[in-house]
Structures are given as structure tokens and as C-alpha cells.
Input
Amino acid sequence: MNWATLCPAETIAPGQSRGFDPLGSGRASLFVVNWQGQWRAWEDWCPHWQTGPMAWRKDAYWSGDGQALACHAHGARFDPLTGLCTLGPCLGQSLRSVPLRQDTQGWLQVDTAGLHAIRNEEPTGSDTFNQGDTT
Ligand code: FES
Output
């Protein structure tokens, strides 16, 4: 486990999302959603082309109706709590979950040990992902 602190939980309102770059890759490698009183963290990675980003602009991970997560490359929709694709070219496939917890001070933390979202890009700076790793 390699826990990274993101932000106070209350700064992401119900029905909202926010991207984070805990590895300093230069773009969001994961995003956190607050949906129906629950929190989830997902890699910013779409199972369709197995890459990201999914958002059309910073932190824009929701569908137009605000009822599903969306990949804006080809319009796939995902259940915010299960990550399952419910419509689009990757129907039946899922987003990758990132372990998430809230510390005693109310800050959200994620385990970055298994984070893969940027692996299809050229390594930069301190990027330690293995190119070609498919796990
Ligand atoms: S890359 Fe996400 S829907 Fe095509």
C-alpha cells in the first residue's frame, strides 16, 4: 500500500467528481466521485481504448444528465458506484477501481500502488510504470 492524501472529503459535493494526479504525471490519473452518499475512486482510464483521459475538460467525468460517469471520447456511460459500462462500445466492461479511504481528519486518501492509468503513455519524470504491464 502507498497511500496518497488527496483533499478534504467535503470539498467534493454530492454528484460531483474531481481528477487527481498523485504521481505527478502531468494529468489526472484517477478521479473521485461522490454519489448517493458513497465515495469511489476510479482510474482515469477507459476500457474501450484502454487509455484516458475520459473527461472532456478538467473534472468533467459525468454524463450530460449527471446520472452516470462518461468517457467523452466515444460516449460510454458507467455506473458511478460499480464502474460497469452500461452503454457504449465497452458495454459490460468496467472502470478500474482505486482503493480509497477517509482518514480521521476527513481527508480522502488513495492507494497508488496499483495505479495503471498512465501506462500507455511515454514515461516522464518520476513515472515508474512498466510499459506493457497488463495487470
Ligand atoms: S475510449 Fe472511451 S468510449 Fe472510446
User: Anything to note?
Assistant: The mean pLDDT is 88. The two ends are 16 Å apart (CA to CA). Residues 46, 48-49, 71, 73-74, 76, 88-89 surround FE2/S2 (inorganic) cluster (CB under 6 Å).
